[in-house]
Amino acid sequence: MLGRYVGKWFYDKGIPFDAANSSYFPPMVSAILRVGPGVKPSTAYELSGPILDEEVEEVKKWIEEYKQSWPRIGITLMSDGWLNKVSKNFLAYSPKGTAFLYSKDVSRTKKDANFHVQLYDQIVQEVGDKHVV
């Protein structure tokens, strides 16, 4: 019975079926079952306001902890494989995980080798060259 209700919600809102493979899906279902009958679903306001704010703070805390690990384990800088005409995204990778760092506006630049060297040099300076391995 639960599966049918979950399915209807997925179908009604066009939620990708792969969302059921999220590591957060089983704990969510378990939490709902623990609360039991009478559980009140979160409102759109709560999801887009206070609950989202809590998640943003949790992610910020994780990123700060992640940055504190850089002197010990270092990071590898990565960039998205697509060089689109508007922006270029940069990420930091380490054994602790991957985090988004920056998105740089590259819409008004000539994208040659010199451009890439300068762009990566700027990112290395921003994160600290002693942290890049």
Describe, in plain words, how this protein is organized in 3D.
The chain has 133 residues and is α+β, with helices and mostly antiparallel strands. It is built from six helices and three strands; from the N terminus they run H-H-H-H-H-E-E-E-H. The chain has a three-stranded antiparallel beta sheet, with no helix packed on it. The mean pLDDT is 91. This is DUF659 domain-containing protein.
Spatial arrangement of strands, main beta sheet: 1-2-3
In helices, the fraction of residues equals: 40-55%
Structural class: alpha+beta
Straight-line distance between termini: 52 Å
Q: Biggest sheet, open or closed, and with what strands and sense? A: 3 strands, antiparallel
Q: What's the overall average pLDDT, rounded? A: 91
Q: What are the low-pLDDT stretches, counting only 5+ consecutive residues below 50? A: none
Tally of DSSP β-strands:
3
The overall number of domains is 2
Shape: elongated
Indicate the radius of gyration in whole angstroms: 21 Å
Write the H/E string, N to C: HHHHHEEEH
Q: What is the tally of helical segments?
A: 6
Q: Kindly estimate the percentage of residues that lie in beta strands according to DSSP.
A: 15-25%
